[in-house]
């Protein structure tokens, strides 16, 4: 299996996990560390994949997809997540729009790029401040069970739930 630039989690395991979690609509912003996942999503039958120009627009697009009966996910980099706190709170949380946030977690243990360490320091604090439950994926075997559990929690709580993909160590 090929390793994802986002960590030790193979991109095909992520796509399989999203499919098994019944995610059928994904919005994403291309980043180097998740591009292998996005390429697979572009070819995945049964999942609508919308490319974004900014992360914030993904929350509006995913809200519309949810209201149309879809199970949405937003795939992005943690720096984009940090830039979206207003969209997260004023749309997804305030209006109880569940969305799965699949976030590449640059700045986590194993980070090799010094310029991205500082956003990594704020990621978990930001999620906690917004009251968003999250899980850090560490092993390929946990991808499907965690994404299924995240899907259940996002619908039960009517809130975003985040799953973080650490960098390659």
Quick recap:
With 169 residues, the protein is an alpha/beta fold. It is 44% helix and 16% strand.
Structure keywords:
alpha/beta, Rossmann fold, 6 strands, 7 helices, six-stranded parallel β-sheet, 169 residues, 44% helix, disordered N terminus
How do the strands and helices of this protein lay out in sequence?
Blueprint: H1 11-20, E1 25-28, H2 35-43, E2 48-51, H3 55-67, E3 72-77, H4 78-83, H5 85-93, E4 100-104, H6 117-129, E5 134-136, H7 143-157, E6 161-165
Parallel strand pairs: 1-2, 1-3, 3-4, 4-6, 5-6
Low-confidence stretches: 1-6
Q: Give the helix tally.
A: 7
Order of helices and strands: HEHEHEHHEHEHE
- CATH homologous superfamily (4th level) name: Thiamin diphosphate (ThDP)-binding fold, Pyr/PP domains
Overall mean confidence score, pLDDT: 90
Describe the overall structure.
The chain has 169 residues and is of the alpha/beta class. The chain has a single domain, classed as Thiamin diphosphate (ThDP)-binding fold, Pyr/PP domains (Rossmann fold, 3-Layer(aba) Sandwich), CATH 3.40.50. The protein contains seven helices and six strands. A six-stranded parallel beta sheet has the order 2-1-3-4-6-5, sandwiched between helices. It is globular, with a radius of gyration of 14 Å.
């Amino acid at each position: 299996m090929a390793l994802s630039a986002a960590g030790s989690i193979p991109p095909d395991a992520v796509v399989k996990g999203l499919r098994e979690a019944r995610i059928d609509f994904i919005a994403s912003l291309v980043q180097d560390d998740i591009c292998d996942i996005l390429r697979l999503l572009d070819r995945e039958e049964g999942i609508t994949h919308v490319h974004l120009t900014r992360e914030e627009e993904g929350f509006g697009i995913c809200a519309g997809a949810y209201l149309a009966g879809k199970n949405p996910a937003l795939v992005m980099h943690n720096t984009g997540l940090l830039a979206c706190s207003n969209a997260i709170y004023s749309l997804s949380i305030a209006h109880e729009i569940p969305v799965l946030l699949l976030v590449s977690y640059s700045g986590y243990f194993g980070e090799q790029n010094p310029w991205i360490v500082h956003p990594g320091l704020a990621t978990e604090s930001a999620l906690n401040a917004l009251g968003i439950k999250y899980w850090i994926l560490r092993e390929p075997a946990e991808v499907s069970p965690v994404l299924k559990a995240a899907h259940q929690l996002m619908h039960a709580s009517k809130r975003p739930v985040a799953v973080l993909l650490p960098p390659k160590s």
